[in-house]
Design a protein that fits this description.
Helix content: 25-40%
Order of helices and strands: EHEEEEEHEEHHHHHEHEEHEEHEEEEHEE
Shape: globular
Largest sheet: 9 strands, mixed
Structural class: alpha/beta
CATH superfamily of the largest domain: Adenylosuccinate Synthetase, subunit A, domain 1
Oligomer: single chain
Number of domains: 3
Bound molecules: guanosine-5'-diphosphate, 6-O-phosphoryl inosine monophosphate, magnesium ion
Radius of gyration: 21 Å
């Protein structure tokens, strides 16, 4: 079987970009299937840092093609900015990029509405990325969206007029702000249409063709399972379904074609934006994780909240998505800690301990922690699992046993080369 979904099992930023880039050397097609430029997928190659918001993160590998599937939303200007960076570095991408005509477009007013609305929530704000994600998906589901395919329609101007009038009424009457000018929006879309036209392809068909002809396809998840609109910590979620369970819908393929699922977790936990985070650390410990992990958002530069690995939530994310193998990232961030904490369960008022919770449980109980001795040695020089300090190996094996699935990969640094593949990795 030749397809793999790579997904984040926490609140995003697990290191998906890094591992997509590494795995892309072994795949023929890398498909983003949900989300938009709320994603920030970092890849570091030879000391150069790339952050991909719209382009699939595998693009730096010359042998791979990349695609943006129907379940995604697209902000053309963000895409073009990434193209400029690729151009500047001499990376060829135009002949290797495909965009589905069903992708919904993020308009300037979606971004404006996102910001106005989140601000208006005051202290209850979600802390969105402000990239127009909610308003764009909302229009898609209200049959109001503008899709890539619409850019080439003779009635684009008329369609846009209805949409802009609708948005401006909300912007002006509800929020008292200045609306957008249809003419300006239209001009932007006309430029986008010309640049995107050559890349438009039916990504659903493309995925079938690749898989049926024995080529390897990687499905690149964005965000993380705990931010899932249906199964995450609602309302502190994003507007898509980031897990492997959405790949069939987002791409337009049979569920039977998602052969395997690789789930990523940091060796600890972070969350950017508001919402419950039961294992959040505080004080000096939090500051230390934050500093050592350089925990600032790749999309917005915001400080990420930091805490300890939450096994009950990890078990949930694994079960929900049929995860076959784990990748544990940022192990090196824990190198200097004397002791580590990991949440193994949640104590209930009746004294029993739950080993699995869902992010819908706003009151999951009292976290129960296991304290683990740190390894106090550098992990980032290890090329193989056996090179890791023995306590770090024990930590990885222990997580694997706790979650009851094998570990396929361990990441010990930002650079592409700081990646350890375990023998169980099937690719
Ligand atoms: P993504 O959204 O899942 O792709 O993750 P981000 O790129 O938003 O955030 C992950 C951050 O951690 C980036 O700055 C990566 O360069 C960095 N990173 C990834 N893996 C490792 C690792 O194993 N060790 C360290 N120290 N940094 C890592
Ligand atoms: P990657 O792919 C981390 C969070 C936001 C906010 C909530 C809703 O880089 O892992 P949105 O703009 O989507 O409406 O914001 O979701 N969020 C992310 N957090 N990583 C991401 O993507 C995220 N994308 C959205 O911070 O809490
Ligand atoms: Mg990110």
């Amino acid at each position: 079987m030749n397809s793999l979904a790579l997904i984040g099992l926490q609140w995003g930023d697990e290191g998906k970009g890094k591992l997509v880039d590494w795995l892309s050397a072994r795949f023929d097609l890398d498909i983003r299937y949900q989300g938009g430029p709320n994603a920030g997928h970092t890849v570091v190659v030879n000391g150069k840092k790339w952050v991909f918001h719209q382009m699939p993160a595998g693009i730096l590998n010359p042998g791979i093609n990349v695609a943006i599937a129907a379940g995604c939303i697209l902000h053309p200007e963000t895409l073009f900015k990434e193209w400029e960076e690729l151009d500047a570095d001499g990376v060829e991408y135009l002949s290797r990029t495909f965009i589905d005509p069903r992708v919904n477009i993020i308009l300037p007013q979606h971004r404006l509405l996102d910001r106005l609305r989140d601000e208006a929530r005051g202290k209850n704000k979600i802390g969105t990325t402000g990239r127009g994600i909610g308003p764009c998906y909302e229009d898609k589901h209200a049959y109001y969206g503008l899709r890539i395919g619409d850019l080439f329609s003779a009635s684009l101007d008329q369609r846009l007029e209805i949409i802009v009038d609708h948005h401006n009424a909300i912007i002006e009457k509800v929020y008292g702000a200045d609306g957008v000018e249809k003419k300006t929006v239209l001009e932007g879309l006309e430029v986008a249409a010309e640049r995107i036209r050559p890349l438009v392809a039916d990504v659903s068909n493309l995925a079938y063709e690749y898989i049926e002809s024995g080529k390897k396809v990687l499905f690149e998840g964005a965000q993380g399972v705990l931010l899932d609109i249906d199964h995450g910590s609602y309302p502190f979620v994003t507007s898509s379904n980031p897990g492997a369970i959405f790949v069939p819908t987002g791409v337009g393929i049979s569920p039977k074609l998602v052969a395997r699922v690789l789930g990523l977790t940091k060796a600890y936990a972070t969350r950017v934006g508001a919402g419950p985070f039961p294992t959040e650390a505080s004080g000096e410990l939090e500051a230390r994780l934050q500093k050592l992990g350089q925990e600032f958002g790749a999309a917005t530069g915001r400080r990420r909240r930091c805490g300890w690995l939450d096994l009950p939530l990890l078990r949930y994310a694994v079960r929900l998505n049929g995860v076959d193998g784990l990748a544990i990232t940022k192990l090196d961030v824990l190198d200097s800690f004397d002791r580590l904490k990991v949440c193994t369960g949640y104590r209930q008022p009746d004294g029993t301990v739950k080993g699995e919770i869902t992010p819908r449980d706003f009151d999951p109980g009292e976290p129960v922690y296991e304290e683990i001795e740190g390894w106090k040695k550098t992990t980032s020089e290890a090329d193989n699992f056996e090179d890791l300090p023995s306590q770090a190996q024990d930590y990885i094996r222990w997580i694997s046993t706790q979650v009851d699935i094998p570990v396929w990969m361990v990441s010990v640094g930002q650079d592409r080369t700081k990646t350890i593949a375990l023998p169980d990795l099937p690719f």
